[in-house]
Structures are given as C-alpha cells and as structure tokens.
Design a protein that fits this description.
Keywords: Glycosyltransferase, Membrane, Signal, Transferase, Transmembrane, Transmembrane helix. The chain folds into 3 domains: about 1-280 and about 470-495, Glycogen Phosphorylase B (Rossmann fold, 3-Layer(aba) Sandwich), CATH 3.40.50.2000; about 285-465, Rossmann fold, CATH 3.40.50; about 505-544. It has 21 helices and 13 strands. The chain has helices spanning about 1-10, 30-45, 80-95, 105-130, 130-140, 150-160, 175-180, 205-220, 225-235, 245-250, 295-300, 325-335, 350-355, 370-375, 390-395, 410-420, 435-445, 450-465, 470-480, 500, 505-544, and strands spanning about 20-25, 50-55, 75, 145, 165-170, 255, 275, 305-310, 340-345, 360-365, 380-385, 400-405, 425. The strands form 2 sheets. A 7-stranded parallel sheet has the order 3-2-1-4-5-6-7, with helices on both faces. It has a 6-stranded parallel sheet with strand order 10-9-8-11-12-13, with helices on both faces. Strand 8 (about 305-310), helix 12 and strand 9 (about 340-345) form a beta-alpha-beta unit. The chain starts with a helix and ends with a helix.
C-alpha cells in the first residue's frame, strides 16, 4: 500500500517542469532523527520536487510514527512490534547508565555497538527488500540525500544508479566525516562532536589532550561503519562494488550540516560544507493560531516571578535516573517558591511523582506542548538535556537555559550555549553528590539578568540573519542539480593529503633542520673564534 502511494504521488507530481526526482534516506533509531528527515522531505516537496522517503528501520517502525507528515514512506528492513518493544526496553535500560562515569573506552564501545546495529539493519534491507529496491531503481532518481548515521544510503546510491549524492549531518559534524571530506578540524580549539568531559574553545593543555584522545577513539570506532558497509554491499553486489567512502567523496557536491553558525563554535568551513541549522522549522510561525490548552494554560499563570520548564527530551527516560539525582534536582526546585515549575517526566517515573506530589509550586506531567511553553511571556527559564533541536527552538524564543547533558553531542551543545552567555552547563555527575552546583546555576539564571539579555540577543540574530536554512538548503540543492552534481571547483584536496602534508610538518621539519644546522655552525664558529682569541691572549701573556 505504501509503495502504491509513492507511485501515485510520483505520477501526479510530474506537473512540475523543473522538479527533480529525489530519494531521501533516513533511519528510525531515533524519533528526533525521523522528524528531522521528514522535515527535509517537506522542504523539498514544497519547492516542487518529486520526493520519496525511504526509511531504514532501526529499533523503531516508521509506519505508525505520527511525527512524520509525509505520506510517501517506503520502509526497509521492517521492525516487528516485538522488536520495537525490545528496543524501547533497551533504551530504558541504557538510561539507567547515563549517570555512570563516562570514559573514552565506554564511548568507543557504545559507538561500536551503534555502528553494528545500523549495519545489521542495512543487511536486513538488502536481503529482504530486493523487490522494493528493484522498484526504486526503476524510478531513475536524480538525487539521493542521506543522513550521516548510516552509510547504507550511500551504498544505495550505487545500487540504484543515482548520479548525485548529498549527506546531511543531523548534528555537529562528526570528526571522521570531517576527515573524509577534508574539513579542517583544529583540535586545539574545536571540541570534538561527541565530547563528554567538557566543551570549550579555550582549552588548557589537559583539555586539548582529552579532546584529541576522545576524537581519535570515537573516530576509530565510527570508521567501522564505512568498512563494514562496504563489505556488506560487496557480499550482495560483488567484489567490484566501490568503497562507500569513494562514493561519498566523488558524488557529493555539498555536505550539509544541521547547525546554525550562531549556535556553533566558530571554525573554518570549506565552500562545499553548508550549514542549515533549523531546516524545515518555521520558528517565527510555529505557534501561529495555537493556544495553550488546559491544564498548561492555568499552570503558566502561577508563580509570583514566573515559570520554569524542565524536560529531558525523548532519548533519556527519567524513570532510569538515579533517585539521588532526581532528589537533588526536584527538592531544589521545590525550594524556589517564588517560581512555578512545570516538570515533564516519563510515564513510568513513579518516584518523581511521589516526590513532588505535595509540592505547591510544581506541576508534573508526562507530556507538554514545548513550543507553546517556550514562547510564553511568563516562562523565565528552560532546563533541558541539550539536544540541538531544543536549543534551536529555545534560542528562537529568547529564553535562557540550564543544560544537563545526558549523551551524544549534548555536552558540546551545552558548551556552545555557555560560551555565548545565554545558559549554564551543569555536569550530571554533580547531582550524584549534592545539589550545590545545580542550585547555584538555578539561582544565577533566575537572578542574573545578563543571561536573559544574551538570550534575547541570540533571538534577534536568528530572526535578522540574511537567509533562512530552508532558502540556503534549497538554493544549494537546485544549484548542484542544475550542474549535474559536478562541482569539483569547491572540493578541497585536504582529504587526499596525509597529516604531514596537511600541516606541512615535513616543511617545518626541514626548516627546523636548516635552522638547527645554521645555529650549530654559528655556535661552532663562535666557539672556534673564542678558542683562537684565548690562545692569542694566552700567547701574549707568555711573551710579557
């Protein structure tokens, strides 16, 4: 039925004379990533392109997911309800360990397990969806756009004979992808994408060493996704199948990164790397015509000094948080009696509900209309996990943040916000000891007006920047299509150079050697002259 819908849609949309046939490839391992992929589809369809959305099912099934509005979805590697339940249980179990002390080896193992799960999903698609893949190939797509989380989409570019390939990184650019495309990543002041110890662009020696180690360890684990995916496609399509990294480089005129330059560490970008943070989201009109319903409407009127909203997103289940951490969080909030707190927890989080049931300044809920709450004039502060979409959303509302990163790129995101003065990063580990750091941050954010002023500034910057993410994305897509996806003029050669060549270490070594030889010769000459002078002086003394 889904495939019939796709074919019907493609037939109707041929009325667009300049429309390209575009295949958008996403994965369902994260609800936020499914939503992001759906937004890409919506932007392309709105511009008049013929779009098919192919989703590699990893953990979640896309079929009944309400977060994707696009009706023309082709699932690959179907996830059964039983498998989805197991995946949900696994995520809940993983949350119990989010407060464990992070190490590079733990990060390496987590990355390796994720890569393995995505490659396994890709193999299921290749082995079980042959008919669907043949139907897709017969459509003769012009373009394939894939997220960075799976190289399966890149491999399908070759299988389906699609000439133009784009990658969109749904978060800060992964270091291994930066290496493949030759994107400069000075580790002395650019925090690695999956930083977990700290994230700042003003690093001490120890921080620079930690940053470099974290980058190399995670990159090592992530590179397996390209090696293993290439091996997988060669298993099904022969040993001559190209390395997916070669497909990435040779068929990709633009690499899109879903960050906004105003909410990112300033760094060098080549001309073929385009930033599109907020793609598919119309922040200015997201809440047009919508009003808060009860009980949230009444809750927003409470609190003498205003309202604080607490939400940890969908990836981290609060039921799995250590009880001591939740006690330090929520007991602290109860003591700020001049403010009303709206606290979103998971359905199974009975401990938090029991802890807060008698708190007069707390409303606890399992769901909240986040966009409407963030826009409300009485909202004074947002306490969040630091997912990039949430940060973009609150930035467009001009509200300050307390950030409690749980996993992935969230520590880095928190560092960006803290760098620019409109939020405060609190290490989750401190909540296992006391409420001291969280209480200090809460007091400072609520009493120090500078954070609100900085938040209003970032809001104005975002509202007045020259081009929206949608405009930038569509113009670059259409430009590349108009030129057959061939833009070698924009491709840096850095990805073809080794570390020594990129940084001219051999040149520095030769120059250092020449300087050392000159200095050595100079020292020897000086030493020789000194000897001659002393000998002459000694001979003169003897004559006297």
């Amino acid at each position: 039925m889904l495939w019939v819908n796709v074919l019907s849609f493609l037939a109707v949309s041929h009325v667009y004379c300049d429309a390209a046939k575009i295949l958008v490839f996403g994965t369902s391992n994260s609800k936020s990533h499914m939503i992001s992929a759906g937004r890409i589809v919506d932007v392309l369809v709105k511009d008049g392109h013929n779009v098919t959305f192919v989703n590699l099912e990893v953990g979640h099934s896309i079929i009944n997911f309400a977060g994707v509005r696009h009706l023309n979805v082709v699932p690959l590697g179907y996830v059964t309800p039983e498998e989805e339940h197991e995946y949900t249980e696994m995520v809940a179990e993983r949350t119990k360990h989010t407060f464990d002390k992070e190490t590079v080896w733990r990060m390496h193992d987590g990355t390796a397990r994720f890569v393995e799960s995505v490659v396994q999903a890709c193999e299921r698609a290749l082995s079980q969806n042959t008919t669907t893949l043949n139907q897709l190939k017969s459509e003769n797509f012009d373009v394939l756009i894939t997220e960075q989380l799976s190289a399966c989409g890149t491999g399908l570019t070759e299988v389906l004979n699609i000439p133009v390939h784009f990658i969109i990184s749904s978060c800060a650019l992964f270091d291994p992808i930066a290496k493949i495309y030759g994107v400069p990543t000075p580790m002395g002041y650019i925090p690695t994408a999956m930083a977990f110890s700290s994230a700042t662009d003003s690093m001490s020696f120890t921080q620079r060493a930690q940053n470099l180690i974290e980058s190399e360890v995670v990159s090592n684990a992530w590179m397996n996704t390209y090696t293993d995916t290439t091996t997988l496609f060669r298993k099904y399509y022969g040993n001559n199948f190209p390395d997916v990294r070669d497909i990435m480089v040779n068929r990709t005129p633009f690499l899109f990164v879903a960050v906004d330059d105003l909410i990112e560490f300033p760094r060098p970008w080549p001309p073929n790397v385009i930033r599109v943070g907020g793609l598919g989201i119309d922040f200015a009109h997201a809440a047009d015509g919508l009003q808060l319903s009860e009980p949230c409407a009444s809750e927003m009127t409470k609190g003498e000094k205003g309202v604080v909203f607490f939400s940890m997103g969908s990836a981290a289940n609060t039921a799995g948080f250590p009880e001591i951490a939740k006690r330090n969080l929520f007991e602290t909030m109860k003591n700020f009696s001049d403010y009303h707190f709206i606290i979103k927890v998971d359905k199974s989080d009975d401990f938090s509900r029991e802890l807060l049931k008698d708190a007069p300044n707390v409303f606890i809920t399992t769901w909240a209309p986040q966009p409407l709450l963030l826009r409300h004039p009485r909202l004074k502060l947002f306490i969040t996990h630091g997912g990039y979409n949430s940060i973009l959303e609150v930035a467009n509302c001009g509200k300050p943040l307390i950030l409690l990163p749980m996993m992935y790129d969230q520590t880095r995101n928190a560092g960006v916000v803290e760098r620019n003065g409109w939020g405060k990063y609190v290490n989750k580990q401190t909540l296992l000891k006391s409420n001291k750091e969280f209480k200090q941050a809460l007091t400072e954010l609520l009493e120090n007006e500078s954070y609100t002023i900085a938040a209003k500034r970032i809001q104005k910057l975002l509202q007045t920047k020259p081009f929206t993410a949608n405009e930038v994305f569509i113009k670059h897509i259409n430009f590349a299509i108009a030129n057959n996806g061939q833009l070698p003029e924009l491709m840096p050669v850095a990805n073809k150079l080794n570390l020594i060549q990129q940084h001219s270490l051999d040149v520095y070594a030769v120059i250092s050697g020449v300087v050392a030889v000159i200095v050595l010769i100079f020292v020897k000459i000086c030493f020789k002259l000194a000897q001659l002078f002393l000998q002459k002086l000694s001979g003169k003394d003897k004559c006297e």
